[in-house]
Specification:
Number of helices: 13
Distance between the termini: 27 Å
CATH topology of the largest domain: Rossmann fold
Largest sheet: 7 strands, mixed
Helix content: 25-40%
Strand order of the largest sheet: 3-2-1-4-5-7-6
CATH architecture of the largest domain: 3-Layer(aba) Sandwich
Structural class: alpha/beta
């Protein structure tokens, strides 16, 4: 029987409060991992709660299913990438929903298990794929991309100011087969002072983002999430680096505005209508107590937005109607939403 190291879910109570979890609610965990947040959501949504979990990692899916087996048909864990969120929800007729969670961190399962290459603390192949079905690996990137393209990836996705020097050293010493080999090359390229962040950290982050196309997938998923929330439903996102947080912040702010015309415009002609309301204008971070107990949570940032009454049609966001139909189940408040899903 396969065993797993327990992953500690980040800001667990803040997530439950942010989602406003209630008995009988329907929720989506887009990054189910080993099921930590999902288990808490089911605990607080019982009796009658339903959950659809999604994760690209088949081993994480196996762990989550095992952890949540006690909830029977009230929980379905799907092995897929969250960029296919709407497709998965359509498959199970799981919409509208009361809340959607995205925790964009790497789990302990992925970091601590050798063979995946997410961490340079262990010798492992340069893989970094969330799903084995993906084609491009980190080894493909470091061993075949041009020096200019490597520098761009390291600079843009890792926010590494020494990207040119690192890329040049990688090209001169490749090919690489393991994480440790690559980390040592980066260390030689820029030096390493004890007590400081390891110089390979940002490069490994950049490679992981590039391999999994994480930023593009995040942007696409946020748009889908809005369409799946019922009136008053909550979107909760936890990010771990500035690139992700910037995307989430700008998306939520954009969708919380009725007008997105440039400041110099005299008359509004954008026809944009706010579909979100910001719940926390100031980002939420872990408490000092949580950071001391779980150091990996230290960079986490949590943002919350709530779905407003603005109407969505199949073709996209429509201008807000002055008298939206209050009898349409899709737009009723979550506490009044009827169960239209018999699959889960």
């Amino acid at each position: 029987m396969r065993s797993y190291k327990v992953h500690v879910p980040v800001m667990l109570q803040e997530v439950i409060d942010g989602l406003a979890v209630q008995p009988g609610g329907r929720y989506i965990d887009c990054t189910a991992g080993t099921g930590g947040h999902s288990a808490a959501i089911m605990k607080y949504s019982s009796p009658g709660g339903q959950l659809l979990g999604i994760d690209a990692d088949p081993i994480a899916v196996e762990a989550a299913r095992k952890r949540l087996v006690g909830y029977g048909n009230s929980v379905v864990i799907e092995n897929d990438n969250f960029v296919n969120l709407e497709k998965v929800c359509n498959k199970y007729e799981f919409k509208p929903v009361h809340g959607i969670l995205l925790d964009l961190g790497i789990s302990s399962l992925q970091l601590d298990r050798s063979g995946r290459g997410f961490s340079f603390q262990y010798a492992a192949p340069l893989d970094m794929r969330f799903s084995p079905e993906q084609e491009v690996t980190a080894a493909d990137i470091v061993n075949t991309y041009s020096e200019e393209e490597l520098a761009r990836i390291i600079r843009n996705y890792g926010e590494e100011p020494r990207s040119n020097r690192i890329a040049g050293r990688i090209v001169s010493e490749r090919p690489f087969t393991t994480t440790v080999e690559l980390a040592k090359t980066i260390e030689r390229a820029v030096g390493f002072k004890r007590g400081k962040i390891h110089p390979a950290t940002k490069t490994f982050q950049a490679l992981r983002i590039a391999v999994n196309d994480e930023l593009a997938h995040l942007e696409q998923t946020l748009k889908q999430a809005v369409n799946l929330l019922g009136y008053g439903g909550r979107l909760v996102v936890i990010t771990y680096h500035s690139l992700e947080d910037r995307i989430v912040k700008q998306f939520m702010q954009h969708e919380a505005k009725d007008c997105i015309c440039p400041p110099e415009a005299m008359v509004c002609n954008c026809l944009h209508s706010a579909v979100l309301k910001l719940i926390n204008k100031k980002v939420i971070t872990p408490s000092l107590e949580e950071i001391s107990q779980n150091p990996r949570s230290r960079s986490a940032k949590l943002r919350i937005a709530e779905r407003t009454e603005a109407r969505l049609e199949q073709g996209g966001i429509e201008e807000k109607k002055s008298n939206p139909c209050k009898n349409d189940n899709f737009w009723q408040k979550p506490s009044m939403m009827k169960d239209v899903c018999d699959v889960l």
